[in-house]
Amino acid sequence: MSYDSAKAAFADWGVDAEAALAKLAEIPISMHCWQGDDVVGFEKKSGSSGGGIQATGNHPGRARTPDELRADLEFSYSMIPGNHRLNLHACYLDTDQNPDRDEIEFNHFAPWVDWAKDQGLGLDFNPTFFAHAKADDNLTLSHPDAGIRDFWIEHGKRSRDIAAQMGRVLGSPVVNNVWVPDGYKDTPVDRFAPRKRLELSLNAMMGMPHDKAQMLDAVESKLFGIGVEACTVGSHEFYMGYAIRNHTLLCLDMGHFHPTENVADKLTSVALSVDEILLHVSRPMRWDSDHVILLDDKIMQMAQELVSADLLDRTHIGLDFFDATISRTAAWVIGTRNMQKALLRALLAPWEQLKSAENQLNFTTRLVVTEEIKDLPYGVVWEEFCNRKSVATGKTLADELVRYQASVEARS
Ligand SMILES: C[C@H](O)[C@H](O)[C@@H](O)C(=O)CO
Ligand SMILES: [Mn+2]
């Protein structure tokens, strides 16, 4: 089918395919650096991921240096239509020096900023509160030892300063997202004290105001992690309250809730109380929160909520998955394109007609329309988008992904 015929098929439902393509082109996705090297980072003394997050698998081709990671990213972005962002973790510094976490400075990340500028990419940032001896108890900002808390507070302060400077140089606000692994393997007798300590540490860390045109604070909750099954200090309720009271972004990671919860359903509830939202789009499976995202119902529901509720302008879409059993570049490319495909489908839905049927309690029409539009030629519109952006699709894409993977397989 030609694009013109597909456009006409959507027009029959009152949908403007051109407008959908124009909107999709404006939506940046923040691709996470840590898919490229299994969350190892480039510190001289880093260990395993820790903090209850773990990349499993030993597929060849893991990026071992910042240059290798940037080469993999450049290839991946060339396979993804549109202009996007890179989400960097503090443990991905690029320097000959060996600063501890409480010593990091902007210059340790300057090569990333120069590269991002060169590539026309925005950056986002995260302090790294795991994979460090002072996080071995799975307690950081809520640790009972004030010295350990102070160490992590200093790391968090420096991360905010670095993020703000990145935003200033790049002319685009950097979302600085705080996730801490803090929690308990077995049932604690006191859940209140660590939550009070976490609150005070966050306050100390985020006390210094920054220009929102340069840096935006975000906080990320979690239900549980490996080794912290009984209690996570930074639970959803904890951070929801914190974000509302302190006017930060709230990060909703799709892998951080009970598997039967619909994270898409949370968007509009949260949007009534916080100005902006950060998404970590992910795919939980049993104990794991981080499988590569598919074009599945959960991702499509998330995209539908963003479009239907007009939340795109105040939601920052980030990805969070890591799979070391497959080509890491293919994981980035397929996952990011799936997020875009879900958004495109949502942008191509006849929302006015659907909302009008729902408002009239005409649930039959709502059902008929939602089911019939599933047969529309979304793939043709997606192909047109990729063609306009000079990005491969189908068999050509598959061949390119295999070719690039073969070129990095010799890395040990
Ligand atoms: C590496 C990230 O900070 C991490 O994945 C975090 O966002 C998370 O989701 C932890 O489970
Ligand atoms: Mn996350």
From TrEMBL:
Its EC number is 5.3.1.14. It comes from the Bacteria. Mn(2+) binds at H256, D288, D290. It is found in: Cytoplasm. The keyword Transcription regulation does not apply. Residues 44-64 are annotated as: Disordered. Its cofactor is Mn(2+). One of its GO terms (cellular component) is cytoplasm. The keyword S-adenosyl-L-methionine does not apply. One of its GO terms (biological process) is rhamnose catabolic process. It catalyses: L-rhamnopyranose = L-rhamnulose. Keywords: Cytoplasm, Isomerase, Manganese, Metal-binding, Rhamnose metabolism. NCBIfam families: PRK01076.1, rhaA. Belongs to the rhamnose isomerase family. This is L-rhamnose isomerase. It comes from Sulfitobacter noctilucicola. The gene is rhaA.
